[in-house]
Amino acid sequence: MKLPIIAICILSFFALHLKAQNKPASATEKYEIGVYYFPNYHLDKRNEKHFTKGWSEWKLVKEAKPRFEGHQQPKVPLWGYTDEADPKQMAQKIKAASSNGITAFIFDWYYYDDGPFLERGLEEGFMKASNNNLMKFSLMWANHDWTDIHPYTAGTNQNLLYPGKTTPATWDKMTDYIIAKYFKHPSYWKIDGCPYFSIYDLGKFLESFGSTELAAKALSDFRTKAKTAGFKDLNINAVVWGSTILPGEKNVADPNRIVKELGFNSVTDYVWIHHVALAQFPTTAYDSVKNEYFKYALSAATNLNVPYYPNVSMGWDSSPRTNPAKPWGNSGYPYTPVITGNTPVAFEKALTEAKVFMDTHLKGTKILTINSWNEWTEGSYLEPDTKNKMGYLKAIKAVFGHK
């Protein structure tokens, strides 16, 4: 009887796959697509103090150069080098995202002991855009070390500018700010009535409080504040890694236990390469990374005791953050292999697999995170460039239907 059972399982999965490919999302199938947004494409007083007046990460995009034969650099944005803190220019992004099936921007949100950083894209751009009612926004607290790698020269010190470890007093002040400034905005993203708030670096979060018990209490206190402010509860999400990327990152031992003990509501990823090593240099194939990632995703969905929201990454190429005047090699971030073959067609296939995965492993609201709207200097962006134009956005619309 073993062979027929296996055959039935295979046929069932194949049927689900065909169903996902051939049927757009309907009103009864609720998919929420949250896309990470990296807000370093506007003028910020810290950046101008550290670099030069008028600096933004667009400078690295413009100065990137090909590092091997066939390497597509520099990338050229179709809409030009926009100022995301300009509400009119942000409105263009909102219109394109919302009309192609994206539910929310998940802003990489920075807050250190001395206050917020890179907040103008959200507060002056998105929140003041005339059409911000078309989609939602939420926060992923990017509580990682901010180091001087814009650009970085291999073999030199990676100077720490802003430590990701913060004080409990900062957390208390920060959560008050979040509730008052963001959660109460009508466009803040809520999952089943609960504001979605994600934490990027679990290790730094634990360091900030000194113990699992105190970290759990901090999250509990945040929930209490939110309920006092009139919210049902919070959906506090943990970004979990298998491998580190940025300078200063450390893996957390037994993240499943930490997620449970701290009381997180859900888990997701930021980017595929947090779980998949780029095994070949200078290039690694997109499909091979995708296949390895979904093996991890199956394990996560099986072993976690909270919902696991899968991720689809558009690509990876961090070479624009390397010094263009110096040699390039495989010496660690940002000197890493480049993912190739990540065409809009390949991206659409990955989205289809993610849809099948959600249909199989998630009950209720099906949430997918995507890396990313505009990680231009990490080669993972949906925002149109002069080569693929709206191709990646159209792929989302093709799989998940028009919102």
Describe this structure in words.
The protein is α/β, with parallel strands linked by helices and 403 residues long. 36% of the residues lie in helices and 15% in strands. The chain has one domain: Glycosidases (TIM Barrel, Alpha-Beta Barrel), CATH 3.20.20. It has 12 helices and 14 strands. Mean pLDDT is 94; it is low at 1-28.
Short description:
The protein has about 400 residues and is α/β, with parallel strands linked by helices. Helix content is about 35%, strand content about 15%.
Features:
two-stranded antiparallel ribbon; ten-stranded mixed sheet; 403 residues; globular; disordered N terminus; alpha/beta; 36% helix; TIM Barrel
By secondary-structure content and strand pairing, the structural class works out as alpha/beta
Element-by-element helix/strand order? HEHHHEEHEEEHEEHHEHEEHEEHEH
Count of extended strands: 14
Estimate the mean pLDDT confidence: 94
Uncertain residue ranges: 1-28
Spatial extent as radius of gyration: 21 Å
Q: State the CATH superfamily name.
A: Glycosidases
Domain count: 1
Task: Report the β-strand fraction as a percent range.
Answer: 15-25%
CATH topology: TIM Barrel
- Per CATH, the architecture is Alpha-Beta Barrel
CATH class: Alpha Beta
For the sheet with most strands, the description reads: 10 strands, mixed
Figure out the total of helices.
12
What's the end-to-end separation, in Å?
A: 45 Å
Instruction: State the helical fraction.
Output: 25-40%
Shape by Cα distribution: globular
